[in-house]
Structure formats: C-alpha cells, structure tokens
Amino acid sequence: MTGSADEALAELEARIRASEFHGWMGIELLELGRRAVEVALDVEDRHTNLVGHLHGGMIATVADSATGLAMRTMLEPGRDHVTVQLDLHFLAATRGARIIGRGRVVRAGRRIGYAEADVVDEEGRLVARAAATFLLTDGS
Amino acid sequence: MTGSADEALAELEARIRASEFHGWMGIELLELGRRAVEVALDVEDRHTNLVGHLHGGMIATVADSATGLAMRTMLEPGRDHVTVQLDLHFLAATRGARIIGRGRVVRAGRRIGYAEADVVDEEGRLVARAAATFLLTDGS
Amino acid sequence: MTGSADEALAELEARIRASEFHGWMGIELLELGRRAVEVALDVEDRHTNLVGHLHGGMIATVADSATGLAMRTMLEPGRDHVTVQLDLHFLAATRGARIIGRGRVVRAGRRIGYAEADVVDEEGRLVARAAATFLLTDGS
Amino acid sequence: MTGSADEALAELEARIRASEFHGWMGIELLELGRRAVEVALDVEDRHTNLVGHLHGGMIATVADSATGLAMRTMLEPGRDHVTVQLDLHFLAATRGARIIGRGRVVRAGRRIGYAEADVVDEEGRLVARAAATFLLTDGS
Q1: What are the tens digits of pLDDT across the range A42-92?
Q2: Could D55 and C21 be called an inter-chain contact, meaning their C-beta atoms sit closer than 8 Å?
Q3: What's the fold here for domain A5-137?
Q4: Any CB–CB contact under 8 A between B131 and chain A?
Q5: Where are the domains of chain C?
Q6: Is residue A3 classed exposed, middle or buried when 0-12, 13-18 and 19+ CB atoms within 10 A define those classes?
C-alpha cells in the first residue's frame, strides 16, 4: 500500500476509471477529492423506463457510486466500507442528456460512516437527494 | 385502452419484455400478477463493484423495478405512478449467480401508493429489503 | 382565512404556541419563517432511554415537527399537508441539555413536498439528519 | 449479569416497566420475546397534532421503541446496540384510541442489526411501517 494520501487517491481513481461496471453503465468520474466526489452519466435511450424518463435505478446507481466513492476517499489504508443502507428522494423527472452525482461524507467515525449526494441535471436542477450509511471495518 | 384487467396485465407484460432498459440491464420478468411481481437478474462480471460484489446500484435497480412494476399492476387504465422515494437496506453480500426481486403493493390509495420488495439470492437468502412511495395521478 | 402571508404565519405561530402536544413534549418554537423553521427541546430526565441518552423518539419528534412546520409555512390558504414518509440518521449521541431542530423545505410542488432537518445540540454538533415527504392537498 | 436468556429477558422487562420515559410517554410493554416485541400507546389529546391526528413523532417513538427493544432481546450479555438509522412510512391516519407497535429482528449480525415494525390500530389496520439499522458493539 502506498504511503501518501495523494497516492491512495490516485490509485483509487485509476481503479474507478478501469472499472468494467462504470464503463458498461456509462458512469464517468469527474472529480475525486478527499471527502467529496463527482460522477456523471450521459443519458442514453437504454437508460430510460417505460414512460421515457431516466430509470430510477440509474439515479440510484449514480447516487450509490457518488456516496460510496466519497466514503472510500476517507478510509485509511487497509480499511473497508460496506453500504448498509441507502435512501433516495426523487425530486424531479430529468431533463437534458446528462446527470451529475455529487457525493460528500458528512460523518466518518470508527465503525459507521454517513454520506449524502445531490443528483442534478445539466442546468443544475435538483433531480434527487440521497443518503447512505456505511459500516467501516479493518478489512477482510 | 383494452377493457379487462387481464388484457392490461398482458399488455404491460409485453411492454416490459420489449423494454430496452431491462434487456440491456439483464433484468428478466419472472411473474407479473395483480399486486405482486417477480424479476430476476443473472449476475455478470460487469455488474460487480471494485471489490467484486454485486454493485448496490444493481440491487437498487432490481428493487426499483420490482416495486414500480407491482405498483403499475394496481393502476386503473389511464392512471400513472411516479416514484417519489425509495429506501434500501442491504442485508448480505450476494452469493451465487442470480438475484430475484419480489415486489408487492402494501397500500394503493387514490393519490399515494406504497410497495415493498425482498431481494433474495438463489438459495432464498435475503440480500436486501426495499420500500418505495409513489404518487398516483390521473395521467398526463 | 386572513389575507396576507404574514398574517397566516402569525396565526400558525399562535396555534403552535398554544398546542398541547408541544407544551407536553417540551418543544418550543424558536423561529417560524417562510420555508424554514427552528424548534428546540430542553432535555429532561423523562426524555432519556434505558442507557441515559436522549431517546430516538424525541429526536424523531423534533425532526418531524421541524420539517412538518416548515412545509406548512409554504402552503396557500386552504391547502393541507400529510406526512407520507420520514427518514432519520442518528449521527451522534447528544451532549448538553438542549437540542435544536432546523427544518427547511427543499421542494414544494403542487402534490408533493420534500423537506429536510438538521438536529443539533447546543454546541452546534450535528446529532441527526432527517428528510420527509409530504402529500399536499386542497384540504378536506 | 445473570446467566440464562430467560433471566436476561426478565431483567430487561423489569427495566422497561420501570422506565420513566415509557411511563411519561404512555407506552406500555405488551410482550417481550426473543426477537419480537409488542408495545402499545393509549392515545390521549396531548398526543395529537394541530389537525387532531396522532402526531407523527408519537408513531415514530412507538416504532423506535418496538424495533430497539426487539433488537435488545437478541444481544448477548455485555453487548450494546445503537440506533443508526430509522425510516418510517405513514400509511393511514389513525382511528381509535390505541396503537400497537410490533417490532421484530430480521437480521442480527456481529456488527450490524436490522429490525422492522408494524404500527397498527385497534382494528388491526396498518398505520405505519418502520425499519431500523443498529450498530452492535461489545459495550462501553
């Protein structure tokens, strides 16, 4: 494990960019800082539900990624996080071709972490609010 | 709009089976009854997160589909539902190659609906519990 | 029903101050503005749980009041709100003798409202975060 | 700490019955079994909100007690639980003079517990559904 916090962030960023899940989903990492993360999804036809809106599962996935990655930036080397709970409030049907998920850690204790995310569209309109609880452990 | 409830269910089923979203995601409709719905996801490598577990966003998507489709089976012709809120409790990391989402409507009022879902793995082990709130409208 | 928004707020404030529930609970209204509300609870022995901490039900009650009253300040005369859903994240065991609930409306549509609350202690430490969904109606 | 599970339950029951919080609130313990707990609240005028319905905070308190006490019945001697998160779905305005909260543990792991509760009125009508997440520790 590399020594500095910057190296740990760089390593995490490389792993996210290489992630098959994010590539397949169409989720792009915009910014990865300590405590706060930004991801984006370019909305395609395949992401929409039966009535033509962005599927709630896609919004949930963006929120889950944004909160989970933000939490991960706070962990010491060798520590792990598991998402215990996620709640989502859908505030507007999306307009435009892109959504952005902004996750930030509100509390990182020894055993429990808590993070929130805004999901906004291109015009900055609030599409959803999310909150997530994490169990933090000393690794497997 | 077709007359009978059976025809409405059959029409809904055909639309789900033709859905680009479900095809792309890998979500399959197992059963669509009035009030209760079952969907499945065959877990592939692309569905997993950085540590090799099924991504929380996939579980959220299965739960969102299971609750939303269950709600839709309860609507009179011309009525619509919008998901207002979804909460998820992740209870176990998934084992096996398939998860099943079982959604059922607990309450369908004139303006508000409420549904829950179990997400289980192949051995019937509970992977997640979900609850969703819907706004029910007279359509657009 | 009085004409101006100020008069409606003053009338609401008078009703809250006269409320038997708030008096019995020990909840005090600190500030009632359009969209944002502040309430306080002076913690007494009767408010604590088996291990001596402020009971989660009290924190929930403060959060429910703060979000619900904030929502009420946004309603046109004759309109009503019903709380559909409330979620709470408990972030710290309380210290000190007083908690403050700060509710604010994030979204007020025609049929659905969404509000959040911070619950803090005397030192401004975040004790809990809450979010609530409301059904908004034209009254009974 | 007493040896047997029965004695631990009896001791917990005695502490709940002597609790100033439950006495002041008007919450009565109906049944305390391993994994499942039932509590009741006789609704008085002081428990109602500005429009005459049972206050959401009271329903939250009953749900918090029912889930938290159920969780406590599962703990080995010397172990502790802390409520991390609680979510509530309000499904009907209450009728009648009494509500009952039925809590049951769905999952009790080494570090995380999960419990749910139904809140029903005298006629068995579902008033609310609740879910709670707990951090389980080896005590202070």
Answers
A1: 998 889 887 788 999 999 999 999 999 999 999 998 999 999 999 999 999
A2: yes
A3: Thiol Ester Dehydrase; Chain A (3.10.129)
A4: no
A5: 5-137
A6: exposed
